[in-house]
């Protein structure tokens, strides 16, 4: 997956990874390592959005860092190294057992103390909703199985269901910490997180397709006359470019549906969310600028994008 934290995990505060799956390329101007009283490990993966950055309210940096490292480590179990699918699934099952142990106020198994020691403290202090963390693990497990079986997604509905578990829980966890819980806000958060996850997918086609990750759905491919073999060649043609354009346009629409949420989250957290939204939209701008060819070129947020992102955030 492309874990995006807004995270499986595509998506939080693209590439919010959702990954649920992958978070890569950080906002160089905003991301910061987190040093907390609970000694959370440093944020050392690259993301397209800020994670526990200086904009985050200091009181919330420890729980956000704990959630991030829970998701990031699970994502690495699912995606990094040379383990077999069976080993990955077994490790994710053990990881889930440790989570459930904490939820029942029992000690964890001890394999991942740098994840579960801080998380235990944050679960107690902030009453984090464990079912949302469980959803993230469901998405990572699905990703392992889909890759193992060289399987894709039938249609957009199935893909969005994956985003519901890979990315949306991150946004809902953040809203829980911010004390924003009404249904309109939750729907807008889900739209932002799903959009970030989808943006991460369309940004990462040059990486994901060779790894056997197929996020362009069967229905969308059929509608544009694109076969999986066409995608595997990583050589764009008008049909493929039209397919990517269509999917990118949907991701933009979804992001804009959720964007009003920035006015519901106050203070520094609200400004961080504005940067998250504008970062996702900026990736879509770059995809469009390069003619929707992400089979050969992967767009990324760079340091010199920061002034534009700040300006657009100011005018939201």
Please give a structural write-up.
The chain has 316 residues and is mainly alpha-helical. It has one domain: Farnesyl Diphosphate Synthase (Orthogonal Bundle). It is built from 13 helices and no strands. The two termini are 30 Å apart.
Could you say how many structural domains there are in total?
1
Described by strand count, sense and barrel closure, the largest sheet is: none
Q: Name the shape in a single word.
A: globular
Number of helices: 13
Low-confidence blocks of residues: 2-52
CATH topology: Farnesyl Diphosphate Synthase
Question: What is the CA-based Rg, rounded?
Answer: 18 Å
Features:
disordered N terminus, Farnesyl Diphosphate Synthase, 316 residues, single chain, 13 helices
List the helices and strands and how they pair.
Elements: H1 61-79, H2 85-103, H3 113-126, H4 130-148, H5 156-166, H6 168-178, H7 183-203, H8 205-208, H9 218-223, H10 228-232, H11 238-258, H12 267-289, H13 306-314
Describe the structure concisely for a colleague.
The chain has 316 residues and is mostly helical. The chain contains 13 helices and no strands.
């Amino acid at each position: 997956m492309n874990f995006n934290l807004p995270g499986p995990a595509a998506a939080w505060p693209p590439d919010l990874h959702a990954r649920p799956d992958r978070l890569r390329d950080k906002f160089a101007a905003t991301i910061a390592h987190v040093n907390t009283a609970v000694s959370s490990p440093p944020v050392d993966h690259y993301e397209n959005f800020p994670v526990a950055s200086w904009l985050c309210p200091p009181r919330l940096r420890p729980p956000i860092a704990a959630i991030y490292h829970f998701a990031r480590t699970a994502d690495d179990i699912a995606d990094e190294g040379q383990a077999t699918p069976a080993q990955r699934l077994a490790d994710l099952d053990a990881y889930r057992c440790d989570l459930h142990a904490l939820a029942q106020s029992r000690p964890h198994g001890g394999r991942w103390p740098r994840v579960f020691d801080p998380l235990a403290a944050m679960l107690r202090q902030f009453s984090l909703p464990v079912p949302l963390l469980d959803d993230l693990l469901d998405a990572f497990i699905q990703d392992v199985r889909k890759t193992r079986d060289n399987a894709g997604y039938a249609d957009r509905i199935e893909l969005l269901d994956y985003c519901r578990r890979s990315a949306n829980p991150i946004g809902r966890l953040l809203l829980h910490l911010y004390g924003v819980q009404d249904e309109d806000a939750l729907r807008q958060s889900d739209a932002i997180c799903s959009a970030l996850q989808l943006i991460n997918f369309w940004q990462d086609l040059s990486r994901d397709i060779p790894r056997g990750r197929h996020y362009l759905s069967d229905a969308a491919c059929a509608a544009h006359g694109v076969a999986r073999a066409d995608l595997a060649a990583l050589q764009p043609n008008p049909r493929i470019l039209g397919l990517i354009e269509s999917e990118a346009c949907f991701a933009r629409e979804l992001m804009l549906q959720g964007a009003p949420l920035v006015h519901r989250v106050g203070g520094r957290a609200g400004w961080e969310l504005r940067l998250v939204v504008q970062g996702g939209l900026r990736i879509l701008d770059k995809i469009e600028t390069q003619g929707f060819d992400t089979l050969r070129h992967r767009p990324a947020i760079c340091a010199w994008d920061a002034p534009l992102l700040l300006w657009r955030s100011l005018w939201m």
